[in-house]
Amino acid sequence: MKLLYRLLSATSLSILLAAPAMAQPSTNFRLSSPDIVPGGTIGNKFVLNGFGCSGENVSPALVWKNAPAGTRSFALQVYDPDAPSGSGWWHWTVYNIPAAVTQLPRGVGNDPSRLPAGANPGMNDFQDTGATGANGNYGGPCPPVGDKPHRYVFRLYALSVDDLYAAAGIPKTGTAALHGFALNKALGGKVLGKASFTAYYGR
Asked: Which range of residues forms the domain containing residue 177?
């Protein structure tokens, strides 16, 4: 009996050693910006020009690499969780960015026609305020005077679908929160990875 146990144990061990390793999701998916240092302060060029702020309101350049295998599109959301709104504040959103794209040049958030073909500029929380021009444009930081510096989270999602709207069943005119729910919950395993960095601004 002991001999049989030893033989079975040895056989099981050899099978385990010979089995191919299970594929693991990429942990090297990275998002960065040549214009903003992660953990640093956002420069005036990228700050809102409105609501009492006098920045240039230019969208920063973003670069990413090592997207997970199977990625077919990307979605970008830029969010301030410290805004005194009870629900934070979305500053910039872009959806259905094609999988072949690896960067958004500086200023594309100010002119949707400069976005990659197929990408859709989504809603933000400056809608219809006049602070950022046309709907869907980038709106820079502008926290209330006296607040401690707010966090601005730049997050890129890698998706296994070409069309976020079709996959999630949401309209292009949906709020950033609705898109955020789809990206963080409803799409489930269709979200292959997330890459992000956080920067700060206060006044």
From this structure: 23-201
pTM (two decimals) = 0.85
- Give domain status of residue 7, yes or no: no
Q: Does residue 111 lie within any of the structural domains?
A: yes
6 exposure class (CB count in 10 Å sphere: 0-12, 13-18, 19+): exposed
Task: Note the pLDDT tens digit of each residue in 24-76.
Answer: 445 699 999 999 999 999 999 999 999 999 999 999 999 999 999 999 999 99
Question: What is the rounded CA–CA span in Å between residue 109 and residue 33?
Answer: 14
Domain CATH for 164 = 3.90.280.10
**What does the pLDDT read at residue 127?**
82
**Range 176-183, long-range pairs (CB < 8 A, 24+ positions):** 176/77, 176/79, 176/90, 176/93, 176/122, 176/123, 176/124, 176/125, 177/87, 177/90, 179/75, 179/77, 179/93, 179/95, 179/122, 179/123, 180/77, 180/79, 180/90, 183/75, 183/77, 183/157
Main-chain phi, psi angles of 45, to 5 degrees: -60, -30
